[in-house]
Amino acid sequence: MPQIPPLKALWAFDALGRAGSVALAAAELGVTPGAISQQVTRLGELLAVQLVARSGRGLVLTELGRLYHAEIRRGFAALEGAQDVLDRAREDAAIRLSCLTSVLMKWIGPRIFDWQSQHPGARLSLTGSDIEPDLIRGEADFRIYYGGRIHPAHHAVLFTDHVVPACAPELIAGHPLRDPADVLAFPLVSIVWNRRFAPGPEWSVWAERIGASAPESALSYSLSGSAIDAAVAGRGFVLAQISFIAEELRSGRLVVPFDIRLPLSEPYYLAWTEAALAKPDARALHRWLLATGRAQGIISAG
């Protein structure tokens, strides 16, 4: 097998060939110009070929030097390409969890840090989207979605959520509520659900539950997270999913004067592929998601 010159000498020669001067090559590699000259001279001696010639106060590649540089440049390019492949493989090793946007904002987002603290080496990529990814084609590893859509990947029920009227405590300060119907006298914030989902819970249904009629909503949002934020800001009552307002209730930013709940018409599901479970820590995340979903279902049902 032919003897390969030392890597340091090859690096120095490659840098000189690309930079065109000893000073620039030295700056690129973080060494002195003398070190570059020494390594290039050593390489020529090992190969028994004159690779460079003096030109003024610098060095230039000879004809043989240019031919040799072109070949080793291809070799270094191949090594750089191999590193790129490895970097991409590492990126692909990240577990990609796709969720409905509000689920990411209000349910998974605040809770995922608990899982990460137990798996500090895990790499996780979270995406919020109302467009269903194709898990079979590798667009995501796990997907949390709503409704009875038959997913081509493996799937399991996470939990069925409930909604409850919630508001900022400042909204009702000085206005004691004696009856659930008193809620309807305040501005009502509505959530307009995506058409592809079953009809979401509406104020009219909640009002009917308590034997009253609901006025028109003062404000409506297409995202549950935005509607909840509006309620926190004191804009009115919102029929909020219990899973989405745990932190707001805990911190006192939202209150529930009357705990009268309506169930969502369908549950949330978790979908995944067998290939996803082969990734590092993916099975642990899978178990945690299912367990967290079961616990949420109990909390939401009251």
From TrEMBL:
GO terms for molecular function: DNA-binding transcription factor activity; sequence-specific DNA binding. This is LysR family transcriptional regulator. Belongs to the LysR transcriptional regulatory family. It holds the Pfam family LysR_substrate. It comes from the Bacteria. One of its GO terms (biological process) is DNA-templated transcription. InterPro entries: LysR-type_TF_proteobact-type, LysR_HTH_N, LysR_subst-bd, WH-like_DNA-bd_sf, WH_DNA-bd_sf. Keywords: DNA-binding, Transcription, Transcription regulation. PROSITE patterns: HTH_LYSR. Residues 5-62 form the HTH lysR-type domain.
